[in-house]
C-alpha cells in the first residue's frame, strides 16, 4: 500500500549565511593625495562619487593576501574552520593562470577543498553567492566560503581622473551552510543577467587572447581599466533596479518590506537612484563608499561586514543585495539577517 503524502513538504535545502569578515590594506589614500596630480579637488571627487578616501595595497601585497585575511575572519565569525568549497570572486587574480582560489584555500588550511574563481567584475560576489547556493542545494557541499577580493589599483591609469579616484582595494567574505529556506540567513531567490553586446563599456583591452592573437601591439592605455562613465551610470541604474524588483517579486516582498538595501558600492549617486527607482527610502541604503571607494567584487561583502560590525544589520532585518558590473552583468538576492556575533 502506498504511504500517504506528508502533510507538509520537506524543507527546501538552502544556503544560510553564518559568518562574515573583511580585510582592507593598511594604507588609506585621501582625495587630497590624488587631487593635485589629477588637477582635481576633494570637493569635485566627493560631489561626483561620494568618495573621500580609498585603500591601495602596498607593493608585495596580492589579491590572495587580502582574500586570506577576509576569509579567515569570516571562518572565525562562523565558528568553524572547515568548509567544503572556496569561491573567490575577483577581477584581479594573482596570475592569469592558475586560479587564485586554490592558493587561498591552501593558506587557510583547506588543502583538498574544492576551490575556483568567479569572474563577473563588480557582480562577481552575487554570482559567486548564487553558485555557492547551487552547490549547497545539490548537496555537492554543506559549507562554502565565498570571498570577493580585489587589488583594482593594479588596473588603474594613475593619470586618469575618471577612474583612479573611484576604485580601491579590499576583500570581504561570508560563510554559507546548508539549512532551511525559511530560517534567518537563507539566501534567495536570485536574479542574474548579462548583456555581452555591451562588453566594451567596462574593459581592460589588453592582456587577453583577443589582443594577444590580434598581431597588434597594445597601446599603453589598453593595459589599463577603461569605462564609459555616462553609459555605465545609466545601465547600472536600469539593470540594478530591474533586477532588484524582479528578486523582490520572486521573494514575495514589497519595497517597503526592505529594511536595508546593500548595493554594489559603485557610486553614491547610483545607489540613491536605484533606491528611488525601486521605491526604497534612501535612508535604508547602507553605503561605505565614502571610506573605501569602489572595491568591485569585494564591495558588497565589505559593506555587509561593516554594517554588521556597526550594528546596522540586526537579526530579523530584511536585506536586499544588488550589483552591476562589466560584461555587462547584474544580479540580486535577498535574505533575512541572522543572529551573528559581532567582533
UniProtKB/TrEMBL annotation:
Domain Beta-ketoacyl-[acyl-carrier-protein] synthase III C-terminal: 248-337
Keywords for the protein's UniProt record, in alphabetical order: Acyltransferase, Cytoplasm, Fatty acid biosynthesis, Fatty acid metabolism, Lipid biosynthesis, Lipid metabolism, Multifunctional enzyme, Transferase
Native organism taxonomy: Bacteria, Bacillati, Actinomycetota, Actinomycetes, Kitasatosporales
EC number annotated for this UniProt entry: 2.3.1.180
Pathway as given in its UniProt record: Lipid metabolism; fatty acid biosynthesis
PANTHER family linked: 3-OXOACYL-[ACYL-CARRIER-PROTEIN] SYNTHASE 3 (PTHR34069), BETA-KETOACYL-[ACYL-CARRIER-PROTEIN] SYNTHASE III (PTHR34069:SF2)
Pfam family, one: ACP_syn_III_C
Residue span(s) of domain Beta-ketoacyl-[acyl-carrier-protein] synthase III N-terminal: 116-196
Record protein name field: Beta-ketoacyl-[acyl-carrier-protein] synthase III
Amino acid at each position: 500500500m502506498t504511504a500517504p503524502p506528508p502533510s507538509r513538504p520537506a524543507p527546501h535545502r538552502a544556503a544560510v549565511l553564518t559568518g562574515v569578515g573583511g580585510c582592507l590594506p593598511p594604507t588609506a589614500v585621501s582625495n587630497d593625495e590624488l587631487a593635485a596630480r589629477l588637477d582635481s579637488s576633494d570637493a569635485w571627487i566627493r560631489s561626483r562619487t561620494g568618495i573621500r578616501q580609498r585603500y591601495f595595497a602596498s607593493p608585495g601585497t596580492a589579491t590572495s593576501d587580502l582574500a586570506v585575511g577576509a576569509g579567515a575572519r569570516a571562518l572565525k565569525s562562523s565558528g568553524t574552520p572547515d568548509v567544503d568549497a572556496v569561491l573567490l570572486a575577483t577581477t584581479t587574480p594573482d596570475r592569469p593562470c592558475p586560479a587564485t582560489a586554490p592558493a587561498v584555500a591552501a593558506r587557510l588550511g583547506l588543502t583538498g577543498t574544492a576551490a575556483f574563481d568567479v569572474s563577473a567584475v563588480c557582480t562577481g560576489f552575487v554570482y559567486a553567492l548564487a553558485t555557492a547556493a547551487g552547490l549547497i542545494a545539490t548537496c555537492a557541499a554543506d559549507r562554502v566560503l565565498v570571498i570577493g577580493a580585489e587589488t583594482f589599483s593594479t588596473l588603474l591609469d594613475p593619470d586618469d581622473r575618471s577612474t583612479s579616484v573611484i576604485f580601491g582595494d579590499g576583500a570581504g567574505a561570508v560563510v554559507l551552510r546548508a539549512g532551511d529556506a525559511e530560517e534567518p540567513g537563507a539566501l534567495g531567490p536570485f536574479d542574474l543577467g548579462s548583456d555581452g553586446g555591451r562588453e566594451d563599456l567596462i574593459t581592460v583591452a589588453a592582456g587577453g587572447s583577443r589582443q594577444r592573437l590580434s598581431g597588434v601591439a597594445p597601446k599603453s592605455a589598453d593595459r589599463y581599466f577603461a569605462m564609459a562613465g555616462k553609459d555605465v551610470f545609466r545601465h547600472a541604474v536600469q539593470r540594478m533596479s530591474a533586477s532588484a524588483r524582479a528578486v523582490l517579486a520572486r521573494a514575495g516582498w514589497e519595497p517597503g518590506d526592505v529594511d536595508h538595501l546593500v548595493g554594489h558600492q559603485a557610486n553614491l549617486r547610483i545607489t540613491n537612484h536605484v533606491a528611488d527607482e525601486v521605491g526604497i527610502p534612501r535612508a535604508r541604503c547602507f553605503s561605505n563608499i565614502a571610506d573605501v571607494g569602489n572595491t568591485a567584487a569585494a564591495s558588497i561583502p565589505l559593506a555587509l561586514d561593516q554594517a554588521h560590525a556597526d550594528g546596522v544589520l540586526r537579526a530579523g532585518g530584511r536585506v536586499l543585495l544588488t550589483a552591476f558590473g562589466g560584461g555587462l552583468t547584474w544580479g540580486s538576492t535577498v535574505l533575512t539577517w541572522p543572529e551573528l556575533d559581532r567582533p
